[in-house]
Amino acid sequence: MRVQCKNCLKNEVVEIPDFTQSDKNGLLELYRKSPLHMVKGLMVNYKVSHRDAKYIVTHISSEYGHCKRCSFDSLDGEYIKCPKCGALNFNWKIEDQT
Fold it and tell me: Which pTM does this prediction carry?
């Protein structure tokens, strides 16, 4: 999947791997430990370039449904542009795999 954020400096298009729900759960766990852990996990486990890994981490919503950039708190898609500020959000929700 290709994504783009209108608020990023160069308005670059980035290719995102097709993550499974299990992948997203693991990456979010790494993110909660430290965004740097997630960057390294993306690079090592998914062969994502350093630039793209940083891009992904920069756009991860810290809390499900909340925009990473502004105060909007009703995001309802997984890869969604905020209707208030236009920022791209990776709005992933940890789901039970059982």
Answer: 0.86
